[in-house]
Amino acid sequence: MAHHHHHDTKITQLNRVYIISLVLNGAFIIVETIAGIMANSMGLLSDAGHNLGDVFSLMLAIAAIRLAHSHSTKQYTYGFRKSSVLISLLNAIILAVAVGVIAVESISKIFNPTTVEGDVVIWTATVGIVINGATAWALAHSHHHDIITRGAYLHMLADALVSVGVVVSGMIISQTGWNLIDAITGLAVATLILISTWRLLAESLRMSIDAVPEGINPDAILRRIEETDGVKEAHHLHIWAISTTETALTVHIVVDDITQSESIIQNVKERLTTEKICHSTIEAETENSLCNHNNCC
0.90 cut: is pTM over it? Predict the structure, then answer.
């Protein structure tokens, strides 16, 4: 019960961080968009577009955290936990689309350069550094919690670094009048977003098709099971994510003494718990048992 209370407290604190981040970034988008139009800065407008994607991502993350801890029903035996993986995948796809839009606009600016107000760019991007940096710091203590929080943390950290780049481009424009640096900054923003998004996209896609979650080695898990007293062999191992925070496993184990199977299974489950696999279904059998798994359908 104490663990459950601690877990609920952690989720509540995480929700609070997301909501505060959502409000701050939403307000900044309005300011940055207006400043970008006034300064005619592709760097500011592209960063505002990315921030808009981040706000949407934060909204999805709040929904995903709640869904990831939903209760099971007769029709949805794992609740709506898998939807957190789908939301993470949607988040990554949205960011990938944003990369394409920013890149196209920046390339257009290269061939059709315009005058950019460097001072407006500098001050606006500086505010972005403060807001995105503060958000990243707030998420820093929780970014290993799951793929959604880690994704939000990386996006905010990337945004803070992007804002630093925009400030530098604003300084260059103010000092030299070289307006082309604004479009180059836009392309740099797109590249940085793509790099930070690629791993999130790949991992979300893997989880959505029930691949083994990142960080889990099936061979190591199999060895860990077979090292349990009373287990002679393990086979038919399946590992998949039921949410962005929970992993499930099914396996058949061959035991020496079928009468001790209940205690052996319990020992295996305890070993799996140390590997952060808390949902396991284990079938015990003897060497003489007929395992006709391949022909069951």
Answer: no
